[in-house]
Structures are given as C-alpha cells and as structure tokens.
Amino acid sequence: MQKDQLFTRRRLLLAGAAALGAAGTAGLVVASDGEEAAGTVAPAAGPPVRQAPKSSAFRLQPLTGYGPPPTAPRKLKVRKEPILRISGTGRRMMLTFDDGPNPAYTPHILDTLGKYGVRAMFFLCGECIVENRELVARMAAEGHVVGNHTWTHPLLTTLNRREIRDEMESTSDAIEDTYGERPQWFRAPYGAWNRAAFQLGAQMGMEPMAWTVDSTDWTTPGTRTIVDTIESGAAPGVVVLSHDAGGDRSQSVQALREYLPYLLDNGYHLTVPRRRT
Ligand SMILES: [Zn+2]
User: Fold this and answer.
1) What pairing do the DSSP bridges indicate for beta strands 121-124 and 239-243?
2) At residue 5, does pLDDT exceed 90?
C-alpha cells in the first residue's frame, strides 16, 4: 500500500472510530447459535454446508405463495450504532476478513480455516465478487458467512442516499448470485457509518456489523504484530477485523496460521453469526 493511501485509510478509520466512540463503546449483542461451535463445522472436504439453489427450485414455489420468497429481505429495526461483539456463553470469538475476495490471499485463508474446521465471516466488495465468483462459491460450500461491504468501498458519508443504495443493493445482488442467498450482514467501509447506511441496511434485511479488535493488518505492521494484537485482544465475544484484499495481505495470511491454533488451544470457539435459519 502506498503511504498516502495508508494515511488516508488511517484518517478515515480514525473518523470511523470517532463516530463509534460517539455512539458509545458498549457492545451490542447478536444471537449466536449454540450449534455454531467449531466442533460442529463440516470439514472443507466434506459435503457442502450450504447449497446454492437449483435453477429449478423456484418452480416449486407456489405462484401465489403464503409468504415472501426465501430470498426476500426481511425488514429490520433501524439501529443507531453497529454491532461490535457477539453474545453467547463460553469463549466464543469471530474472525472477519474484509475487502475481498482476492485470488492471491483468500484461497490461503480458506485453506487455513478449513485445516482447523473453523468458519469465519467475509465482508465482500461487489467489484471483487464479479472477478472471483468461484471464491464466493467456495465460501458457501465451506460454510462461511458473507456480508455486504459495498461495491467500490467508498466512504459512505460522502455519498448521497441513492448512491449508497446502489452500492449496497448491487453488492447484495452479486452475493445472491454467487453465494446462493442474500447477505444478512453489512459493514461500512472504514467503519464510517451514517444514518442512511443504517436505514438502507435495515430495509435490505442486513444488520450492521463492526468489530471489537482491529488486527491492524491493513498497516502491514509485520506478522508478529498482527498475531500479538489478536492474541492479546482475545476475549469472549470478540469480533476480529482482518483483511484478505486491498493491498499486500501476505502478513494477514501468515498471521492466521499462527493465531488460529493459539486461539483454539486456549479454548476459543471460532463461530459465525446465525440470525435466522
Ligand atoms: Zn474494507
């Protein structure tokens, strides 16, 4: 990453952090299904946990149904601040990877997660989805959960409502097309949320998901620093922010190989959210 880009991102992140700070640092909770523990995760080589709908599936839907089709978004309550951590009993944590998918890094992250039978969340950008459709299909097949991270990764606070809607809607469309269902989670680029993003996300059936611990991998501080940041930040309910795209992410890839077995050895269950079945 170029230095000027780095400073821009840092400034934007600080702006986002300030916004979060204004909203308070108390974490909101999200239901985390007891069956989501790592021990129940299907191995990467096993049968797919999720299947894309068959092309003939819609024919099974009645012409005049008794409810919305399965992919219709359910409107949600509009939040005023994003979710910062997960709830649930025990030592649960969640790993999230933003800005991808990216063919240079995402496959390695998926390999490591699969090796340990761990599921994670990926917040995807539409422009990367259409270039790497097979990676999104792999995420679906291996039981990972994907979220909407906009199409072009803009600073939403600089866009009008129509532009924000376009960024979010087109990305949800691309996710439905590649993953098999519309996303139920949304993360604002740079953590810079605004009212329109909360409102539009709720309209599209997506909850806003932020994070508890920033791995700082986007500053490429060295693998050791990333590992230390995540291991020292480990605690029940923590959501970890990392990246599998947006720059050289080889440190993020290598760090995962080190902190993931550490977290598992220390009794953490790496989980994914499950809001509805
Ligand atoms: Zn991002």
Assistant:
1) unpaired
2) no
Rounded Cα–Cα distance for residues 215 and 240 (Å): 7
Catalytic residues: 98, 243
Q: How far is the CA of 191 from the centre of ligand 1 (A)?
A: 8
Domains defined for the chain, CATH in brackets: 73-270 (3.20.20.370)
Per-residue pLDDT, 71? 56
Residues 6+ apart with CB under 8 A from 20: 81, 82, 84, 191, 193, 210
Closest CA to 92 of 35, 177, 17, 158: 35
Which value, in Å, is the radius of gyration of the alpha carbons in the chain? 18
Ligand 1 centre from 68 Cα, in Å?
A: 32
Copy the structure tokens of residue 256: 């995962």
Token pair of 54 as six digits: 């068959």
CA of 99 relative to ligand 1 center, distance in Å: 5
Residue type, 200: L
Spacing, Cα 150 to ligand 1 middle (Å): 9
Instruction: Indicate the average pLDDT of the chain.
Output: 82
pTM: 0.77
Contact 83, 210 (CB under 8 A): yes
